[in-house]
Design goal:
Structural class: mainly alpha
Strand content: under 5%
Order of helices and strands: HHHHHH
Helix content: over 70%
Length: 146
């Protein structure tokens, strides 16, 4: 078996502490932008919730904004990353299932909904990886990450 050695240049990039910050910013940017748009146009946020068939659309919109902001800030500050990633992961999973049920569609709409659903699944995977990296950093196995 051939060892999978990371090239020194790549290892240096991965060990650079700025990489951890860039990764956290990248994973939460979508949520922060979404929250900002929904805060500035709360009527549209409510209409979006109505479109998804959510009960109590105004409350649902407010909770969505709260989860997007609080979850993102927890990840950005590297404090309770597991909680922030969990909040955003559950939110994203619910959004994928409720807003993009490709299994109920046909034709091009099915393809578009499936692509969006799978993008959501990728985001959830990224959030899981952020939580894993934070846990390893807190336990000292990735001391350079902090």
């Amino acid at each position: 078996m051939i060892a999978d050695a990371t090239p020194p240049a790549i290892r240096s990039l991965l060990e650079w502490k700025g990489t951890w910050l860039i990764a956290r910013v990248a994973i939460v940017t979508l949520y922060l932008v979404s929250a900002a748009f929904h805060v500035t146009d709360f009527r549209e946020a409510i209409a979006e919730q109505v479109g998804y068939g959510m009960p109590a659309p105004a409350l649902s919109a407010a909770l969505a904004i709260l989860v997007e902001i609080v979850g993102s800030l927890l990840i950005l500050t590297a404090r309770w990353v597991w909680l922030g990633a969990g909040m955003l992961g559950v939110f994203t999973t619910l959004g994928a299932v409720l807003a993009h049920p490709f299994w109920t569609m046909r034709g091009n709409a099915r393809f578009e909904a499936m692509a969006t659903f799978l993008e959501h699944a990728g985001l959830v995977g990224g959030l899981i990886l952020v939580a894993v990296a934070a846990e390893r950093a807190n336990n000292g196995s990735l001391a350079h990450v902090r």
